[in-house]
Amino acid sequence: MPTTVKQTVVTGSNRPILLKKSRRNFGPRKSVVDVEIWFAQKTELSWFLRSNAKIQRFLIYRKAALSEADFFNKIGQKPTLEFFTLTLRSDFESMKAVQWTVFIDMLGFKKLNSSVTTDDQAQDLIKFMTSNRDELVQLEARVEQGYKKDTVFNFYEWYEVKSAFISDSIVVTFKPKDVAREKNADKVLMHSANALMIIAMRLGALMHKCLVEKEITFRGGISTEYCDISENFAVGAGLSSAAEAEGRATHARLALAEDVVRNAKLVKQIRALFKLMYGDSEFLVKEAGVTYVNTLDLMLAAADMRSPSVARAISTQAGRHAVIGAREQIEVFLEAQRALVIKSIRKMYAAYRKDYADADRRKSYRRVLQKYFWLRRYHNAAAKKRQFQAFKI
Fold first, then answer.
1. What is the pLDDT of residues 149-206, one digit of tens each?
2. Confidence class for position 18, pLDDT limits 50, 70, 90
3. For 224-251, how does the pLDDT look when each residue is reduced to its tens digit (9 = 90+)?
4. 3-state DSSP call for residue 66?
5. Of 7, 26, 199, 362, which residue is least crowded by CB atoms under 10 Å?
């Protein structure tokens, strides 16, 4: 990938362009989850993280019980006491992070499934659904190896990932492991919040994949209750709770189960971590009594030059490459979503006008149109906020 980067070039739509080349000429595919390289790995900061003395001073002055990314954000800044006090816990032999279980329901799968009439079409759809699951549970080898080298937070040390299919739905549970060396409850909570953001990045990557490949999206629910999966069979309160949360969600969004929302300390840590990484606290949004994970804003924030972590990441070559790769994929996603919304509204509106005399059909088309109108508003608000105005609908 080219290493020359334009600092800022403003087009008529005020869209920053990071590369001279066309945004559609990518070369090897880079997933949105590549931002995890600088979000959770930060190998270029190993010199800082290896220093026990600096880490101890960091803890003693109680700057924050925050993620590995926050060590990066705090370099060169004055100490702050505004976040969470670290309470050292010596009465635990080992501690586990919070378990996360995700229930995903594909929107538009019925139409895809109804069009399957041959073995080849069946295998194509099976391959698509299997690859959707793999998008959540697998990472490129280089990214996984990067986690293993991380001295602060190795995602795979803390979590075992399991998955299963239930009809057109996917269940993935991130089951916590015992980490004997960690006895600090606040740091465990921090890693739990960090894990949700990493999971949300992968869900964003999955949403991108579904839109680009099949022009469909999904709705989901997230729980912290217990769940286990053996082969293709899932059990536990976490499965039921995540499925119930998905049922309460409106439109193509991810809803938090009540067990998550009731954990005030965890929610506070999640909001604080997102604010420190991306400059605001809109990662969790409450509407009509349901709390949603704002995955689209997280995706766009990963390439917003005003995000504190992005601004710091581009000071290194590896960070610039990660941000550029994220931006390229975000632009593809936004363009795909824009095309889908425009195409769907035109198709539904034409059908609505054609069958206007039929009250039942008119009502059905109106419901579908309302969903796409909502998606247009949601898309445009995020694009405007994160300086992707060229992709507004």
1. 666 677 888 898 898 888 788 899 999 998 877 778 888 888 899 889 888 888 887 8
2. very low
3. 999 999 988 899 999 999 999 999 998 8
4. coil
5. 7
**For residue 165, what are the β-bridge partners?**
170
Mention every residue, 6+ apart, whose C-beta is less than 8 A from residue 163: 133, 136, 137, 170, 171, 172, 173, 229
Evaluate whether 242 touches 101 at the Cβ level (below 8 Å). Answer: yes
DSSP 389: G
* Contacts made by residues 129-135, CB under 8 angstroms, sequence distance 24+: 129/165, 129/168, 129/170, 131/209, 132/106, 132/170, 132/206, 132/209, 132/210, 133/163, 133/165, 133/170, 133/172, 135/31, 135/202, 135/205, 135/206, 135/209
What mean pLDDT comes out for the span 123-132?
88
Query: What residues pair up with 22 in beta bridges, in sequence order?
Result: none
Task: List, for residues 78-111, the tens digit of each pLDDT value.
Answer: 444 333 333 334 343 457 899 999 999 988 888 8
The whole-angstrom separation of Cα 374 and Cα 130 is: 29
Nearest-angstrom CA–CA distance, 226 and 161: 13
Measured distance CA(208)–CA(323) in Å, rounded: 17
> Which pair of structure tokens corresponds to residue 78?
């004055």
Following DSSP, what letter does each residue of 336-367 receive, concatenated?
A: HHHHHHHHHHHHHHHHHHHTTT-HHHHHHHHH
| Burial of 253: CB neighbours in 10 Å, binned 0-12, 13-18, 19+ | buried
- Tell which phi-psi region holds residue 34, choosing left (phi > 0), alpha (psi between -120 and 50) or beta: alpha
Which amino acid, one-letter code, is at 378? Y
Number of helices (H), then strands (E), belonging to the chain: the values are 16, 9
pLDDT in tens, 243-279: 999 999 988 889 999 999 999 999 999 998 888 888 8
Tokens of 189: 């909570």
The enclosing H or E element of 193 equals helix 185-214
CB-count exposure of residue 141 (10 Å: 0-12, 13-18, 19+): exposed
**Which tokens hold the place of 138?**
């697998």
pLDDT of the residue at 61: 36
CB atoms within 10 A of CB 11: 10
